[in-house]
Amino acid sequence: MKKENIWMTYDEKENDELHNTCELYKSWLDRAKTERECVDLVTELAKEAGYHELGEYLEGRREIRAGEKIYVTCMKKCIALFRMGEKPISEGMNILGAHIDSPRIDVKQNPVYENEGFAYLDTHYYGGIKKYQWVTQPLALHGVVAMKDGHCVNISIGEKADEPVFVITDLLVHLASQQMDKKAGEVIEGEKLDLLIGNCPIDKDENLQEAEKEAVKANVLSILEKSYGISEEDFASAELEIVPAGKARDLGLDRSMILAYGQDDRICAFTSVMAMLNVKNSSRSACCLLVDKEEIGSVGATGMHSRFFENMVAELIALTEGESDLKVRRALAGSKMLSSDVSAAYDPLFADVFEKRSAAFLTKGLAFNKFTGSRGKSGSNDANAEYLGEIRRMMEEAGVAYQFEELGKVDVGGGGTIAYIMANYGMDVIDSGVAVLNMHAPYEVSSKSDIYQAVKGYEAFLKWGCECERL
To answer: Per-residue pLDDT for 434 more than 80?
Structure first.
């Protein structure tokens, strides 16, 4: 089924809307390179749009009515936005779900060391990465250090023009004959992904004895103490993430694409939030759910496998319909969801791993994936045909460009999303998202035209089955 290049369909007004949306998206990527930063940003946007924290309702300071806008966070690393409909929530919701963690490199809990006059941070990579892609790149350090007295110190180093950056070194090509013979997965070992952070010894007059052997490490620790009040021991209670430094950029002479870190899956998080903020009153409740830990199996208290979302639905039902486990189950089973995650875009330079008839393409619109998984659809949510028919009707009535695709050739690879977890409740779920090139690399590529279609498509989904109006 041939789909046209959607750039050819836009008029001047839509082109203006598209570029305004993408400028906002780039600013989002610059401000939210970690899941914590993403939750902070979404919370800020939600408050500006009139959302109130769930605790205000639990404490009786506000009453839930139709049209009420509610948000709730979990451990500062996942967030859910609810727009209450006129119908009881036990009749189900329209849910947009995305993840806000991205492949990266984490700092270990006892990380600072010196080796032959260089100071390093010891690291452990997070998620599925090609390790060799992360060397010799300008890198930034983001995160939080929790102190013993309970207060937290936010860290962001390497993003501003006057700030230093960091790097993971690689072997010079002149001495790399043995390295070049290794398999790609072994060229750079995980334990060699340590971050270079210093080379200058501390001044001897400044807390350094003649016998001091780790003067460079001492200097780095002194800088951290002066700048942030952090000691070496404080790394034990820190969450520090190493990410590519620098801003999201337009790509191409025609500025038609975006090159940036973390588009998997913040491209879907952004478009989902924008759609959620656009939708006003409706008969059916709407929800935007952004979770953590998808890249490592959706585990833990902030991953989709946790009871966070189920518990929040239970709280809302208790506040509006009275406590009822059965109504919670009905609400979840009666919901419909788009599991919003990126798709692998067809790359003509690596055409051998794609089945072209079933591949996602840049500039062809919002991509729907009936199933994910690997090999024989292992680990997949395989969406029902009836739901696919409903999706087609929904998108076409809203004038949204869309495509159906799958992740590469059979037996070549595979992947998963949060879809199968939510499908456990018995709701209709299908994977949908924006196609990207270079998925899981330090810099990923997306088409501005697809980002615009994603906002339109997600908004159409939130309004499906409702009578509602746009702000």
So the answer is: yes
